[in-house]
Specification:
It is a single chain. By secondary structure, the chain is of the alpha/beta class. It contains eight helices and 14 strands. The strands form three sheets. A six-stranded mixed beta sheet has the order 5-4-3-2-1-11. Strands 6-7-8-9-10 form a five-stranded mixed beta sheet, with helices on one face. A three-stranded antiparallel beta sheet has the order 12-14-13. The termini are far apart. About 40% of the residues are buried.
Amino acid sequence: MFQALRWTTAAVFVTILASSWQEGAAQPGGPSVEVRPQIDRDKLPGRQVRVATIAIGYGGDRDKKLKLALEHLHVAGKRGVDIACLPEEFAGTKAEPLDGPTVQACAALARQYHMYVVTSVREQAGDEQFNTAVLIDRQGKTVGYYRKVFVFWGEGCNVSREGVKTFDCDFGRVAMLTCFDANFAELWLEADKKGADVVLWPSAYGGGQVLNAYAMAFGYCVVAVGWGNVIDAAGVTVSDVEKPMPKQAIATLDLDRTFVHYDFTGKKIERLLAENKGKVEMKRWGMESWYELRATAPGVRVRDLCRQYEIEPLRDYRHRSREQINQARKEGKRI
């Protein structure tokens, strides 16, 4: 009973904290923020999504860090982001349930600004504790969670037995991985196999070039929250970012941008471009032997055109090749 009372009291406190900002007003002593509506994807080329990385670091004083996190979420929400991601255990390592005060406070702002939020807690689950990332939807409801698979030495957490998960948002499919998970490629391959468009990576450190390598190798975007960088599906760190306040970066990603291997596709690509002039642009990646296709006209989706012209995207080509070549190996067949 006392445990429930303690969490109820804490939840009331953070609800008051979350609602202490007024819509469109700047926090006293905080940044003045231009209010910007969310993008209307139906009126834009491709499949665009605005993401915010909030790199306020791991741990620290619980109340101060939660207040700072909520300030960042208010700013991100007013800038019209679709999804904002906080670092791992940003408010410290005091354990709480998945419906505890940290998640509730973030959920209130997800609902207020109609945005997705990835928050992170030290989760108390029965007698076990996990380093857990939580995905909250635009209505403030918990979509799902990811428990860190590769817990760092001395972290004091239980090791997840659930593996990599993906979640479908209205802009695409996301996966979540955490910090030390960056060192284990099998997790990132699993996110690829499960069709992630974006991998969100709440972390206590920067990660570095291995994240760019995963993005390029597996063809998804990576939102890295250790140092606050956003990486596109070509493995390139996005330079065109907004920085509405220190430690926050906002970038727009086009999840419809499609890579196609040169193999067996040249004539189909030529036909697609000829019949869709002014609607699609193409770039060649010579050393990689890739075509990059990007929609340039409102309402046009390259993925839809690829299906229409029977063009196999690079990710699908890799998956099919892996499966069929491995099967040939088992059967001892030549290719």
